[in-house]
């Protein structure tokens, strides 16, 4: 299905018809109220059609994740894809719908702003209608203006020892994006999220309570994602939400892997730690030694080395102690 075709059919364009009809003077106030309702209704219809379109992508992504999880757990834990259920998928679609409502609300806002301003200035309906028409003609359906400056959002943060925390970030810039680009971005984004959720749902239905965060250990990997490589994550925890939030970041290639809790099958944590050290040693030249990432990498390496030696063994004397943030 083509997102571009879908966006062209946004119902708000029907307002054109409404704006072209002459309005008797005594009905002006009612006309303006009706128009406001129409805008609200149109934007909720827009949410509906976009949500329907995304649901197809999301369902596919979810089932891909489930199938891959089934392949990985199958030989030891026979997994029925049907048994996995759709709770994680539903939760994801609920979140996506909230996001869509925000965006469509934002798309409709300039129109209601024009209405409000016109009414405040005592402009006649003809003039207000003309301004609305101009807006629809020039901007609507082509671009979305995101002006969320000052709004806060949370981001998963990784410490060099692989523990995680939420950090609050503030949006500092306004952006404009074409509707088509936004539709494609959203489709990619939610499909990827659905894939991870499907994966984890597969493990759950195979009776596994934990999974392993697996990063691609090469020189494109972000240091904080690499620090997560080999971390065992418990299903249904805040930590899981943070790990999945990391995987949702743009261009992330990290994936969940099953954790069986059986040392015959699971790779040991010291194997993962060794891979982290090797990858960090390779990428550290790409970062300024004195900068925050240079320090992050040094701290991550010393944590990983400690893990390779085994946690109970004392650390050999170091000429220079590193300050290590844990928490
Ligand atoms: Zn990643």
| C-alpha end-to-end distance | 46 Å
In sequence order, what are the helices and strands, one letter per element?
HHHHHEEEEHEHEHEHH
pLDDT under 50 segments (min length 5)?
1-9, 318-327
The proportion of strand residues reads: 5-15%
Question: Helical segment tally?
Answer: 10
Q: Which class do the helix and strand fractions yield?
A: mainly alpha
Q: Compute the gyration radius: what is it?
A: 26 Å
Strand order of the largest sheet: 6-5-7
Give the distinct bound molecules: zinc ion
Structure summary, number of beta strands: 7
Q: Label the overall shape.
A: elongated
Oligomer: single chain
Helix content: 55-70%
Largest beta-sheet characterization? 3 strands, antiparallel
Mean pLDDT: 81
Explain what this protein looks like in three dimensions.
The protein is mainly alpha-helical and 327 residues long. The protein has a domain at 1-206. It has ten helices and seven strands. It has a three-stranded antiparallel sheet with strand order 6-5-7. Strand 2 and strand 3 (164-170) form a beta hairpin. It starts with a helix and ends in an 18-residue tail after the last helix. Zinc ion (ZN) is lined by residues 215, 225, 252-254.
């Amino acid at each position: 299905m083509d997102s571009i075709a879908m966006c062209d059919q946004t119902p708000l364009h029907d307002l054109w018809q409404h704006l072209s009809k002459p309005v008797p003077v005594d009905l002006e106030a009612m006309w303006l109220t009706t128009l406001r309702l129409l805008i609200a209704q149109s934007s909720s219809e827009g949410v509906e059609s976009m949500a329907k379109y995304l649901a197809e992508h999301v369902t596919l992504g979810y089932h891909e994740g489930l199938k891959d999880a089934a392949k990985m757990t199958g030989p030891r834990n026979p997994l029925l894809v049907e048994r996995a259920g759709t709770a994680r998928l539903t939760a994801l679609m609920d979140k996506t719908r909230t996001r869509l409502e925000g965006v469509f609300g934002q798309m409709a806002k300039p129109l209601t702003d024009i209405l409000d301003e016109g009414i405040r200035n005592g402009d006649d309906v003809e003039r207000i209608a003309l301004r609305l028409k101009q807006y629809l003609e020039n901007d609507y359906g082509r671009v979305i203006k995101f002006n969320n400056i000052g709004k806060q959002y949370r981001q998963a943060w990784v410490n060099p020892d692989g523990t995680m925390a939420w950090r609050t970030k503030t949006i500092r810039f306004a952006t404009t994006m074409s509707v088509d680009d936004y539709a494609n971005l959203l489709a990619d984004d939610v499909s990827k999220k659905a894939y991870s959720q499907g994966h984890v749902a597969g493990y759950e239905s195979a009776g596994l309570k934990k999974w392993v965060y697996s990063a691609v250990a090469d020189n494109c990997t972000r240091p904080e994602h690499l620090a997560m490589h080999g971390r065992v994550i418990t299903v249904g925890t805040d930590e899981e939400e943070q790990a999945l939030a990391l995987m949702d970041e743009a261009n992330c290639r990290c994936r969940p892997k099953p954790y069986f809790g059986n040392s015959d099958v699971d790779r040991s944590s010291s194997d993962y730690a060794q891979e982290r050290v090797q990858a960090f040693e390779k990428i550290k030249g790409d970062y300024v030694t004195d900068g925050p990432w240079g320090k992050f990498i040094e701290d991550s390496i010393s944590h990983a080395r400690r893990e390779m030696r085994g946690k109970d063994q004392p650390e050999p004397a170091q000429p220079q102690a590193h300050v290590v943030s844990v928490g």
